[in-house]
Design goal:
Blueprint lengths: L1 E9 L5 H8 L8 E5 L2 E3 L16 E3 L4 H13 L2 E5 L11 H4 L3 H16 L5 E2 L8 H9 L3 E3 L12 H15 L5 H13 L14 E3 L2 E4 L2 E2 L6 H13 L3 E7 L6 H16 L4 E2 L2 H4 L2
Parallel strand pairs: 1-2, 1-11, 1-12, 2-5, 6-7, 7-9, 10-11
Antiparallel strand pairs: 3-4, 8-9
Helix pairs in contact: 4-5, 8-9
Bound molecules: zinc ion.
The site of zinc ion has 5 residues, from strand 1.
Length: about 280
């Protein structure tokens, strides 16, 4: 099984210590795929210092010299890779890639900026807040990027392929459910309609492709996610010898309860035989 960590929200305000302290002993041992915001817009957010919240300005990550040189060194060592996480991560109040305008131009500009700054090729797009409009999905496709997203038919271009992928995914969830048939139907309702993230929903551990974009569905770890749900999905990916991507935020690791959850998961994974720790881009090779 291939295992990757996706870490969101690295931007102008991130310090090398924020990242190193978040991962402690794991830094340099397990690759971290950073979803980077190229031109973060200052607003109330856990990774932006309070004194900047009301400036209303955009801060290019390239202006944080200390962070840029640190990341360039870590990229060379293979400890870190860079993915594109929106453009400025603004809310209108809907997320940037739902309500924002000129999304294709923003992807092109953000991608080129990060590529020149870090001397890497950006291959994967990570939507801010994990939500996308029709225009956003189209823009990612036109920019030939891989995508971390759900196999949902919503906001996809017209066509049969998205429905086949969706139904195959649903069948997979049904087969891997750990409850009765009736309970599974109730869980689908609670998970998608009520957005109850306490519900365990199996995640298919394989790349899928719709309209020429390769995509993968990560498993998120938040303060509210039951650890057992993540472990159950790791167990599924392991059984299928598939891919598993744990999505989190470095700034969440400042919280002790969250940190405890994360280390419980990582201790479990590190004890499994035949685990290959990789960067997210590696899934798409
Ligand atoms: Zn984010």
């Amino acid at each position: 099984m291939k295992f990757a960590i996706r870490d969101d929200d690295t931007c102008y305000f991130t310090t090398p210590e924020d990242l190193k302290n978040a991962y402690g002993d794991l830094w340099g041992k397990i690759p971290i795929s950073l979803a980077v915001i190229p031109f973060v817009k200052a607003r109330k957010a856990p990774y932006i210092p309070k004194e900047y919240w009301n400036t209303g300005k955009e801060y290019p990550i390239g202006e944080n010299d200390e962070l840029v040189s640190f990341l360039k060194r870590e990229i060379k060592k293979g400890n870190v890779s860079i993915m594109l996480h929106g453009y400025n991560h603004e809310y209108y109040p809907q997320p940037e890639f739902v309500a924002g305008k000129n999304l294709k131009e923003k992807i092109i500009k953000g991608k080129r900026y990060l590529e020149e700054l870090f001397e890497v090729e950006i291959r994967t797009f990570v939507p801010p807040s994990n939500t996308m409009s029709k225009e956003a999905i189209k823009a990612v496709k036109e920019c030939s990027l891989n995508l971390l997203y759900y196999p949902t038919p919503k906001n996809r271009p017209f066509g049969i392929k998205k429905w086949i992928i969706f139904l195959e995914d649903l069948m997979f969830k049904y087969r891997e459910r750990q409850c009765s048939r009736i309970e599974f139907i109730k869980n689908c309702y609670r998970f998608w309609i009520k957005r109850d993230r306490n519900i365990f929903m199996p995640v298919k551990p394989f790349i899928f492709e719709i309209n020429g974009i390769k995509e993968f569905n990560c498993v998120s770890l938040t303060a509210k996610t039951p650890t057992t749900n993540v472990l159950k999905n790791i167990e599924i990916a392991y059984r299928y010898n598939g891919n598993f991507c744990l999505a989190l935020h470095y700034h969440s690791l400042k919280n002790d309860i969250f940190r405890e959850k994360f280390y419980l998961i990582m201790n479990y994974v590190q004890k499994l035989p035949n685990i290959k720790f990789v960067h997210v881009d590696n899934f798409f090779d």
